[in-house]
Amino acid sequence: MKHLDLQVIEQALAWAREGETLWLCTVLSTFGSSPREPGSWLVARSDGKHVGSLSGGCVEEDFLARVQQGEFDQPVTLVRYGENQAIQTQHPSITLPCGGILEVLVERLIPDTPTLVHLEVLHATLLGQRCLTRCVDSTNGSFRFLSDNGMGPRVEHDTTRHLIQMRIGPSARLIIAGISPVSVVCAEFAKTLGFEVIVCDPRDEARDSFHVSEVEVQAVLPSLFISSGGCHASTAVVALSHDPRIDDLAMIEAVRTPAFYIGVMGSLKTSQSRRERLLRSGGLSEDDIARLHMPIGLDLGSKTPAEIALSVMADIVRVQRDKPRDQL
């Protein structure tokens, strides 16, 4: 299953190549209860056909109706749905759940060469190995790209400079080193959260017991997959086999990559033994060890595989959102 961002941009590219004018919408911010997070995309054309989502219902219906009525004819428009005062335009008749507020950037893109190049860059970034920041001037719609490390908020709006910065990067990837009961639930959770999930385990019997749809399974040592270039900056690596021959090697290779999260399952005692082992014979430095989350996950008092998997994915999302533990 393709990540929704990729589906939006691929459809935008196809329509632009056919000579269609496009409206690319980005959720800038949400307040209160809102179904979609900042950075979410929707692309539409003048007849109302669209791909993507802004709210999961009412906002899309209003926006698409207004597009078909000829509104949003400027290069860029800022729209606020829900209560509170408008930014530039507002439709108070749209009420979001629990009094939520949704701010949306609407860009009108004509099918010329700059638009095609723009969309090609977005497409390549979503499929590639590096992250970019897309900067849009909210007064005239001009844009540019900057290099980025992929960490932090997906959207930042500098109202003083009229500048909107949106982080774009490869779909979040989760590499699961070794199959265990925790691995199964972790893969399910990650898939639901929109991660591309890759499970690596050389053991035939372990792979025979793994049944999660839309998850790639590699019959190799995780360390070999990681060392062959399996990680980019939007990758999390978790070792969940409880077999040090699998887990330790995965950690040794993972610290050589730009992965944003590297963790290994085990108790405090097991983690201390692993730390000493990796320093002594694994060739890791203290800085390398500091990158490892061990014991893995948030301390939720987890006992069952599902609870452990929940703590693992919660910690990955925390790091992905650049949220310190002491701010939870």
Automatic annotation (TrEMBL):
Residues 174-316 form the XdhC Rossmann domain. It comes from the Bacteria. Pfam families: XdhC_C, XdhC_CoxI. Residues 15-81 form the XdhC- CoxI domain. InterPro entries: MoCofactor_Util/Proc, XdhC_CoxI, XdhC_Rossmann_dom. This is XdhC family protein.
